[in-house]
Amino acid sequence: MGSRFTPFSFASWLLAALVLVPGAGHAQAPAASEYPRKAVRLIVPFAPGGPVDIIARSISPKMGEALGRQVIVDDRGGAGSTLGTELAAKSPPDGYTILMVSGSFVMNPAMVKTLPYDSIRDFAPISIMAEVPSALVVHPVLPVKNVKELVALAKARPGELNYSSPGRGTLGHLAAELFSAMAGVKMVHVPYKGAGPALVDLIAGHVQLLFAALPGVVQQARDGKVRMLAQTGKDRSRSMPDVPTAIESGLPGFAVSSQFGLLAPAGTPRAVIDRLRNSLLDALADPAVSKRFTELGAERVGSTPEEHETVTKAEIAKWLKVTRDAGIQPQ
Q: Are 266 and 119 in contact (CB under 8 A)?
């Protein structure tokens, strides 16, 4: 005779078993509620001393206080930030390894032919903590006082204006390519090995303009060594409130900022993600952290995980289009 243990009766038996066994069906809940049990590693995929490392070390102590455990910064630079990013992507999704990313994270899919991770599928967003806008600066002898005059000059002298950048595929490079496409101008890219040399040669007059992280050129603009025509955030920065945005200056939609965000490996429980985000929000609300961010030219954000994911997808799509339109091939 065939078994009378039908799917319905099996389901009823399983439900009864779950009711009778304490904690059954909620195996992950205790782990999430007890998180964290040990220190959290915050991977910075850059060398020590850079802006990402500085911001990480600004927020990690206060995050640790909120979590009740240390948040330890682990600098893992190399290969344009892909080494540390890959390490985070392949770490256990338990909340004990998280990653800080910046503009390179959303530009690498356009510039690196084969990434050892998927920038969307392999990560769980936590929050965008801050944005750092760029600034469009020119040499003081260039006869332009605003963006409209620069565009007019570039159109009158196609291919004659040179812009420096910290290197191929950097934010300064791609921001200038986006500017050229939106303004309908042609300029010549002069790549350097780092932001410092790119700025030095602008000040020396060897190139005419540069897109640079706003904090890195504020003092030079105040000293008259460069002329700041526009900042590239959606809103004016508190560090340079008298300088208009590129949008205000006649380039609708031109917004270029480096988002500093936190990610966890894909599969990290949502309860852990929320705990990490809440600790970040506590850190961002601290007056000392707020003061440090202002000094760095960083605008505090504190987005939701969903907002972080939306921004990441949009930024990746934007830079893929910019590089395709400019004929820049990934390497």
A: no
In the chain the beta strands, taken as DSSP E runs, fall at 40-44, 71-75, 97-101, 123-138, 162-165, 188-191, 209-213, 227-231, 257-265, 299-300
- Residue-wise pLDDT tens digits, 170-211: 899 999 999 999 999 999 999 988 888 999 999 999 999 999
pTM, two decimal places: 0.82
User: For residue 64, which of 294, 266, 282 has the smallest C-alpha distance?
Assistant: 282
Count of helix runs (H) and strand runs (E) in the chain: 12, 10
d(CA 109, CA 117): 10
Q: How far is CA 319 from CA 195, 232, 312, in A?
A: 20, 15, 11
Fold of 30-131+258-326: D-Maltodextrin-Binding Protein; domain 2 (3.40.190)
Output the six-digit token pair for 274.
């929320």
Query: What is the residue whose two structure tokens read 């350097």?
Result: 192
What are the φ and ψ backbone dihedral angles of 181, each rounded to 5 degrees? -65, -45
Report which of residues 175 and 13 the model is more confident about.
175
Identical fold at 30-131+258-326 and 133-231?
yes
Q: Which residues of 24-37 are buried (b: 16+ CB within 10 A; e: fewer)?
A: eeeeeeeebeebbe
- Identify whether 36 is preceded by a cis peptide bond (ω within 30 of 0): yes
Choosing among 3.40.250.10, 1.10.10.10, 3.40.20.10, 3.40.190.10, the CATH entry for 133-231 is 3.40.190.10
How far the first Cα of the chain sits from its last, in Å, is: 67
